[in-house]
Amino acid sequence: LEPAQLVSELQSSSSFPGEIKKVPVNYKKIHSDVPYSEEVVQNCMQETLNFFYFILTNREDTDFILKDVGTLAIRGTEVTMAFCEEFLLSLNKSAYVVEKML
Predict the structure, then answer these.
(1) DSSP-assigned letter for residue 58
(2) Residue 41 contacts residue 51 (beta carbons within 8 Å)
(3) What would the pLDDT profile of 11-43 be if each residue is shown by its tens digit?
């Protein structure tokens, strides 16, 4: 499935609060940030989306570890995100904001 098809499938079979903003994936931009060809980047992202779709449609528990960002945990119908402290600090230097999110 293509990314747009995945979003459409998930929206038709799931309940989401409010509107979901669709953002096209910019493979060229991502390719410019990593030492891999655009084709490798696109294939890797497509496989990740396919796996994510499989997990969601089969209601399996999993963790997606996003390097230097945090961990997206899916347990049944609950989804939580645990952010790395360094990532939060990079977003806002305010200790108050970081304390509230930790």
Answers:
(1) T
(2) no
(3) 555 555 566 667 777 777 777 778 888 888 889
